[in-house]
Amino acid sequence: MTSRIKTGFKTFTAEEGVSLKPVPQPVVRTHDPKGRKNLFLGSHAGEVYGVDPEVGTKFLEELLEFTTQPQFVYRHKWTVGDLVMWDNRRVMHRGRPWDESEPRVMRRTTLVGDGPTVIDGVPLNEAEYLRQKAS
Known about the structure:
Layout: H1 2-6, H2 14-19, E1 28-30, E2 37-39, H3 53-67, E3 118-119, E4 122-123, H4 124-134
Antiparallel strand pairs: 1-2, 3-4
């Protein structure tokens, strides 16, 4: 629901409130075999688990402001025959308005990848910490 609120939606039915409830996600993820880290930000991130909501929101806003500086942004200028691919786990992306009279074809492919990032509503790295602490 956080991302929809940030893009202008203001009212939700009770059913939408239940179906769109927040799902905790780790802000820092290790994505590939080399152990490189990436941030989970964008309009979906609304608060930081275990941090005062006001402080966490400000922190996320600062990270988003930094990561969306012009030198880090790629904006594609479409031409006939173009193919653009990205990995949703590593790239923030946003659809932009386009001329709806121009045909466009979009395909989504989902590949087998990393396991869950959340266990029982708790970010995986936090769940692992709690499991080890309980042992």
